[in-house]
Amino acid sequence: MTYCVGMVLDRGLVLMSDTRTNSGVDNISVFRKMFHWSVPGQRLIAMMTAGNLATTQAVISRLEERTKHPRERQNSLMELPTMFQVAVETGKLLRETVRETQNENGASGKGRFTASIILAGQIKGMEPRLFLVYPEGNFIEASFDTPFFQIGETKYGRPIILRGYERTMSFEDAVKLLMVSFDSTLKANLSVGLPLDLLVVERDGFAPLHEKRVESNDPYFEAISSSWSDALRRAFHSLPDYSFYQPHL
């Protein structure tokens, strides 16, 4: 399973993903799900993937190949003029890869090789943008009403972000909020696991402002996890007590 979050702030973009993949409880591996490419001073493009690992790896490999071969440069992430066109090309490639894989595996492969992608980035002279790309190749863009996207195991961490997110918040507070969201997800679902990958991109920076892999022994993540648990217990015990013998009104 997977959990990835991409978030738009006034200051820029914050992305976080886990790294766990599994084909059963006895076959668990670590694979990177966050990737980024940049041209200093010109553009930065980042992606996070969820779904069938072979499919997502094929998409990322094909995108990277396009940056190396002159014949493909017109469709390269480093050459496309807008983030919208980057989203179009990413969706097209994802759809083609899913279809090819399913065709190779026949009817038994239907639905098994799907994937989704969170695409984020900025090109010089334009706004930072965030997209959610579906396996069918279509996509939606983040807005003021929907300022963040999640893929994978979303339900456990979503309430945390909904309650805590503010578009004007600092990068540091956004990272703290994502840490809590991921901790809640890790506690509830063993198919999401450490290490976590974090990427912070400042508006008009065109290079990672902060990039980190959060390992299992990371002291800050451990502090967030224990402090959040303690805070929830205190909040619970501060609520009004329920009584079986409440007086009738």
Structural account:
The chain has 249 residues and is of the alpha+beta class. It has a single domain (3-238), classed as Aminohydrolase, N-terminal nucleophile (Ntn) domain (Glutamine Phosphoribosylpyrophosphate, subunit 1, domain 1, 4-Layer Sandwich). Helices cover 33% and strands 28% of the residues. The chain has helices at 53-66, 83-105, 158-164, 171-188, 219-238, and strands spanning 3-8, 12-17, 20-22, 28-30, 34-39, 43-51, 115-123, 129-133, 139-141, 148-152, 196-202, 208-214. The mean pLDDT is 93.
Output the radius of gyration: 20 Å
Mean pLDDT: 93
Shape: globular
User: CATH superfamily name?
Assistant: Aminohydrolase, N-terminal nucleophile (Ntn) domain
Number of helices: 5
Structural class: alpha+beta
Number of domains: 1
For the structure shown, list the relevant keywords.
alpha+beta, Glutamine Phosphoribosylpyrophosphate, subunit 1, domain 1, about 30% strand, about 250 residues, globular, about 35% helix, 5 helices, five-stranded antiparallel sheet
Could you outline the blueprint of secondary structure elements for this entry?
Blueprint: E1 3-8, E2 12-17, E3 20-22, E4 28-30, E5 34-39, E6 43-51, H1 53-66, H2 83-105, E7 115-123, E8 129-133, E9 139-141, E10 148-152, H3 158-164, H4 171-188, E11 196-202, E12 208-214, H5 219-238
Antiparallel strand pairs: 1-2, 1-10, 2-11, 3-4, 5-6, 6-7, 7-8, 8-9, 11-12
Helix pairs in contact: 1-2, 3-4, 4-5
